[in-house]
Amino acid sequence: MSMISAFFSTTAVAGQTFLLDQFGDNIILAYSLRKLSSTYTGDAIRVRESSGNTEADIGFDSNGNLDESALLSHVGSNNGFIVTWYDQSGNGGNLEQATTSKQPQIVSSGAVLKRNGKPVMEGEKLSTESHLDLISPKSTYIPATGQYFFFSVCNTASSRGHLLYAENQPNRWQLGAVNGDTSTVIRSTNYNTDTYRRNGVAYSPANRDILYDDNTSQTLITVDGNLRIGGDAFDFRLGYGFGSRDMWDMQEFLVYQGDKSSIQSDIETAINNHYSIF
Amino acid sequence: MHLYYEYPNSGSALTASADVYDLNAPPRDQRVSLYAYSVYPHTGSTDPRCVVQYEDDIQSFVTGSVFNGVTSYTEAEAIAAGFDVGDEESEDLAR
Lengths: 278, 95
Hints:
heterodimer; A: alpha+beta; Jelly Rolls; 11-stranded mixed sheet; 6-stranded antiparallel sheet; globular; disordered N terminus; B: 4 strands
């Protein structure tokens, strides 16, 4: 190999680009089961195995995907549950769940759970009322008001009701998908002005059942919305955590502060290039 | 199977849930997980009582003597006693 070809071979690996390398402006929270930034040096998730209940941090392989070998080495033939979903934005706003019965699952009997061939955490594989909470003090990581864009790679595949996220619980929540429930209330009234896109197209589900049915396959949901968190009950979580409703199955969840309408299609395309959803 | 153990307040209920998990996990400085079971409040706004939801269909934990002598309810009994144990039908998603 010549010195020139050796140089480019090396830089091809060292110069690998990730989603936030291109779309990192104004990102405030970034969770994924893949590496999102070349500058992020932490792990993807912390996982509890169900035999001895030991926990281990799981990072990425050389391609920036979840290190499945390390994951299965830790979990073995048991079940594996998400304890922490690390924030890759650089702001340190990790999501955690300290109660074992509410932790979403990522390994079932020694097999990594997957959607479209990629690892996924399932909200209701074995858990009830699963959810992941932003660590405290929450206001450090997400201000209470203002415009935000959310991008989420997710699905509603489990059989019971699900919610994508909730704030200031139990009064402020978004996207309540409930199989067989024709209620037209899919979000708190606080968020009636928010707009949704599904797989890059404007989306207005008519009721909870349709929202559930539309998204049993892997989906990219984009929300253009505003936070209006008031009082002292500031909360932010993936999932709901009340009334036997679990978090959606998730692969990625991004929060941008401010208006991203001019580049939302570009971000959606970049996400889809990895997940091949639509 | 779900059983519900009654405690006088949320603090004592969480302590019981943590005590069970301590019997089944490595030392606390080696983990983030703290609680074995969920805790549910009473629906009465001034009633501080809570119940710990014991369940062995997700994962079986050794409980030792943690629940010895503690009043227990079935799910129907817990609901009848006024505890908000996450009954799906009673939840008001429109709030």
